[in-house]
Amino acid sequence: MFVAEAVGSSFLGVLIDKLIASPLLEYARRKKVDTTLEEWRRTLTHIEAVLHDAENKQIREKAVKVWLDDLKSLAYDIEDVVDEFDTKARQRSLTEGPQASTSKVRKLIPTYGALDPRALSFNKKMGEKIKKITRELDAIAKRRLDLPLREGVGGVSFGMEERLQTTSSVVESRIHGRDADKEKIVELMLSNEATGGDRVSVFSIVGMGGIGKTTLAQIIYNDCRVENRFEKRAWVCVSDDFDVVGITKKILESFTQSQCESKNLELLQEKLKNEMKEKRFFLVLDDVWNENLNHWDVLQAPFYVGAQGSVVLVTTRNENVASIMRTRPSYQLGHLTDEECWLLFSQQAFKNLNSDACQNLESIGRKIAKKCKGLPLAVKTLAGLLRSKQDSTAWNEVLNNDVWDLPNEQNSILPALNLSYYYLPTTLKRCFAYCSIFPKDYVFEKEKLVLLWMAEGFLDGSKRGETIEEFGSMCFDNLLSRSFFQRYHNNDSQFVMHDLIHDLTQFTSGKFCFRLVGEQQNQIQIYKEIRHSSYIWQYSKVFKKVKSFLDIYSLRTFLALPPYSDAARNFYLSKEVSHCLLSTLRCLRVLSLSHYDIEELPHSIKNLKHLRYLDLSHTSIITLPESITTLFNLQTLMLSECRYLVDLPTKMGRLINLRHLKIDGTKLERMPMEMSRMKNLRTLTTFVVGKHTGSRVGELRDLSHLSGTLTIFKLQNVMDARDAFESNMKGKECLDKLELNWEDDNAIAGDSHDAASVLEKLQPHSNLKELSIGCYYGAKFPSWLGEPSFINMVSLQLFNCKNCASLPPLGQLRSLQNLSIVKNDVLQKVGQEFYGNGPSSFKPFGSLQTLVFEEISEWEEWDCFGVEGGEFPHLNELRIESCPKLKGDLPKHLPVLTSLVILECGQLVCQLPEAPSIQKLNLKECDEVVLSTCLQ
Fold first, then answer.
1. What's residue 241's pLDDT?
2. CA 886 to mean position of chain CA atoms
3. Which residues form the Disease resistance protein winged helix domain (predicted)?
4. Burial letters 84-103, b for 16+ CB under 10 A, else e
5. Band of the pLDDT at 5, cuts 50, 70, 90?
6. What is the rounded CA–CA span in Å between residue 565 and residue 264?
7. Which of 84, 120, 789, 856 has a Cα at 20 to 30 A from 51?
8. Are 697 and 727 in contact (CB under 8 A)?
9. By C-alpha distance, which of 936, 872, 860 is closest to 905?
10. Cα–Cα distance, 833 to 72 (Å, whole number)
């Protein structure tokens, strides 16, 4: 349910704003429906006046909740109509602009004349929709008068924080009341008495949801005593689906830190035994619900090859689960005391408040913390809400809210969590509730979720000058700071929801968000009010299962999610299913068929006029229909890892609202013409320069908003260096990573002077962080490479630049951390030019951590003694491989070097550097090397 913010815009406010926007109004006048839209606006404005009171009463009064749900359903329908009008209006404004007579835009946007049958059909259908909505809106307005709702009931507005301070790891100093618990469990795990009798001991932490079991397990897992005691450690989130194959696979992957493709249990267990054999391991199984003893017996079968003293730590809400799995008594995790709750609350809530405010609010804060009844999750969510407020009015409103006193049968969600949601700004409510279409323990990727929110129209609040993506990122960070999301294994780009928070998303989204797993279709009722859905297909015969969706004509989201344990493989989707989907679900904003085995899309994709987000990544698609270019509203097109895709539609330039085009991992031979028209592009992962057809590299010129990573292939097809200059790479200040590639084919060995001229003209902006140059056949590197102005560059790879006889002054790159030089046929000496010329106080390669030289066939000498005071002060990894003629010395003193690898350097005669921190030394096929004293 989308409910009104106490003061400020509601979900109806966003819709009302759309009804008065231009050029929609002008187009509505032409269609003679402007009076109707104005009536809608007035009615919705009157209804909006009672929304806050309705939101406050809906939990206690069922009639109010039913009315709110009906209102929201109708608001979706109104928004669909408005979106259709708005699309037509924007298309018309493009074709009727001041330069319409000469602009090529007219050719790109299809228009329909007054006598065009398609236009007549559109007008008739739209007229019917408008009449139906008007009748339903009048009925909603009349029903409102029969409800005990008051206008202008206000409250406190909790806005969004623009500057958020977050941490990427579990910081033990911020965890209150668990020191004693941690010490008891760690002592038990490490004591001889606890581990002496059994080869593998199983301990369990038992407690209710939100009490902090996972957090306690995390701080135990990261305790230095545990790290030092166990040779192998693994963490696996189990949740309510105890899939033995999937869990075994996760354990193996956690131990090896690499993905495993197999789904054969016997093979997986054999591999796991090899990893565990005679090694003392520590395994955390988090959030276990399984009560089937046979499943546990099968899962633990490989564990007993581990060394004596190995430990499995289980967290669960259920004592029965613990009794099945444990070999030791379970540890019952109790509630926090009132004082511990207050310490945790004050630490979070007072983060951004001054000392006077803290003192004035302490007494109220202590009462709120006490109401959280010892549950850390409840404390953190409310504290995250209140830290943006410094006045007692807001804090008192939360303290005295009626939700605290509701009986359990009326409020199945913890009151503190309910209040944390209730006081969110409307935009955050919509973004949060949407997440209920994802399964429990789903690993969220921030960037992908923001793009989905954008496609659904939730991010209309971007009015402060930032891009819509930046606003979406801020929304995510706000939910993270309020503990609605948590970092996944301390990862900065992946996040999860606590189970209780996920329950809250399902409660707040009601009938409008829906998730269906294949085998559940006969057990779950599908409502016509559903607008956002996900579906997990686990079997090949899916047509009957997906048919149930085809009656939901107003569905906006169709996300086909692969089962987690099967993410490495694709699932079959028949043409019949895809055709039915695209022909029927015409209100879709989001369509994802990622990881499903489809080879083509039907031309009926053109019916999805509302579509903003299309994900076909990791599919077998060979080509896209030309009709896809009529999707005027499309913002995101995902085609990553479509390994059979060789061409894009010729008229891609029509997609002028496209912002993100991901085409990495494809077999594209060229880019279509008129790519330069897609001026809104923020993401373009790949650009392939065509030989005789397709876009020139110069068409990148007007794509000034590109960010993230851009890889340019087949630069040998650039016929004129002026075209490279026109690409304006120097003006693309938001790009983080740039890869420039020529084709690795001796038969295409072009003029080295031409290649050098092209690379010179492709100079990137100095903001660039990572650069890769591959298969470049010019005789020299460009003058800009190594310039000190590239102050942000942290990574550089020069691969197969086989004709360059000298290296650029890379030592001048002050922030460079990783440097890789691979495959060169003419370089004989690495000399002083490599270090550069800086002031007397300048130390070259001052930040470099990893240095790799590989396959440099003619390299004989490394002059590394010309830098006063030493070079490479922070180098911790040096790798030299397949340099058969190298004879000279290596750097003498590398104070922080931990890894030194020298392979296949047959003539190398030298003394190894002094490296007091060395941990890994690998020498193979070298003539004669003398160990330094510190290496002996």
1. 74
2. 45
3. 437-504
4. bbbbbbbbbbbeeeeeeeee
5. very low
6. 12
7. 84
8. yes
9. 860
10. 68
Which stretches within 191-280 are classed as H helix?
A: 192-195, 213-221, 224-229, 244-256, 265-276
Residues 560/596, Cβ–Cβ less than 8 Å? yes
The three-state (H, E, C) secondary structure of 151-213, written as one string: CCCCCCCCCCCCCCCCCCCCCHHHCCCCHHHHHHHHHHHHCHHHHCCCCEEEEEEECCCCCCH
Any idea which fold 178-332 has?
Rossmann fold (3.40.50)
77-91 mean pLDDT: 89
Give whole-number Cα distances, 709 to 322, 606, 665, in Å. 47, 30, 13
Dist. CA 617–CA 755, nearest whole Å: 33
Residue keyed to tokens 């080879």: 599
How far apart, in whole angstroms, are the C-alpha atoms of residue 588 and residue 580?
13
- pLDDT tens digits, one per residue of 95-124: 765 444 444 444 444 443 444 444 545 577
244-256 vs 265-276: helix crossing angle, rounded to 10: 40
Strand (E) or helix (H) holding 53: helix 51-57
The residue length of the chain stands at: 936
Answer yes or no: are the C-beta atoms of 175 and 219 closer than 8 Å.
yes
Poorest-pLDDT segment among 438-452, 505-519, 644-658, 850-864: 505-519
Are 17 and 111 a contacting pair, CB within 8 Å? Answer: no
Domain extents in the chain: 11-145, 178-332, 336-404, 669-770, 786-936
Contact of 553 with 574, CB cutoff 8 Å: no
Paired residues of 283 in beta bridges: 234, 312
Share of the chain above pLDDT 70, in %: 85
Chain-centroid distance of CA 696 in Å reads 32
Better-scored residue on pLDDT, 761 or 916: 761
Task: Count CB-CB contacts under 10 A for residue 917.
Answer: 12
Rounded distance, CA 669 to CA 671, Å? 7
Helix (H) or strand (E) holding 736: strand 735-741
Evaluate whether 558 touches 573 at the Cβ level (below 8 Å): no
Task: State the CATH architecture for 336-404.
Answer: Orthogonal Bundle (1.10)
Vertex 624, ends 623 and 629: CA angle to 5°? Answer: 150
Can you read off the two tokens belonging to residue 157? 């507005």
CB 653 within 8 A of CB 674: yes
Residue pointed to by tokens 């209730």: 422
Could you give the CA distance from residue 551 to residue 373 in angstroms, rounded to a whole number? 45
The band of 749, judged by pLDDT with boundaries at 50, 70 and 90, is low
CA–CA dist 229, 310 (Å, integer): 10
Compute the distance between CA of residue 718 and CA of residue 695 in angstroms, rounded to an integer: 11
Q: In sequence order, what DSSP letters do the residues of 59-115 get, joined into one string? A: TT-HHHHHHHHHHHHHHHHHHHHHHHHHHHHHHHHHHTSTTTTT-THHHHS----TT
Beta bridge partners of 591: 558, 614
Closest among 150, 149, 30, 34 to 82, alpha carbons compared: 34
- C-alpha to C-alpha distances, 724 to 298, 719, 733, 734, 758, nearest whole angstrom: 61, 9, 17, 19, 6
Please give the structure tokens belonging to residue 776. 């470049």
Instruction: Provide φ and ψ at 662, rounded to 5°.
Output: -105, 110
Token reading at 570? 């694709």
Max avg pLDDT among 22-31, 829-838, 877-886? 877-886
